[in-house]
Amino acid sequence: MTTNTLKASAAGTSVLPALFAVVLGLGIITLTGHVQASALHDAAHDVRHATGFPCH
Predict the structure, then answer these.
(1) InterPro entries from the xrefs (predicted)?
(2) Which helix (H) or strand (E) holds 41?
(3) pTM score over 0.85
(4) What is the mean pLDDT of residues 5-10?
(5) Three-state SS for 55?
(6) Taking the C-alpha atoms of 38, 40, 46 and 50 in order, what is their torsion angle to the nearest 10 degrees?
């Protein structure tokens, strides 16, 4: 009796998360590069209040 084993390639499974991280990172950089600074400040300020973190 012979048993055949299959070897899975680890390289194929690590490409998709890395690609997703690159696309997400470039998207964040692109969006924040085109947004007004006051809008970013207001969004961060609102999130701090919503989570209960004191900021004043």
Answers:
(1) CbtB_put
(2) helix 37-50
(3) no
(4) 63
(5) coil
(6) -170
Q: Which residues contact 26 (CB under 8 A, 6 or more apart)?
A: none
What sign has the CA pseudo-torsion 35, 37, 26, 13? Answer: negative
Render the burial of 17-48: b for 16+ CB within 10 Å, e for the rest: eeeeeeeeeeeeeeeeeeeeeeeeeeeeeeee
Tens of pLDDT along 21-39? Answer: 999 999 988 988 888 888 8
d(CA 7, CA 5): 7
What's the one-letter identity of residue 13? T
Please report, as a single letter, which amino acid is at residue 38.
S
φ, ψ for residue 45, nearest 5 deg: -65, -45
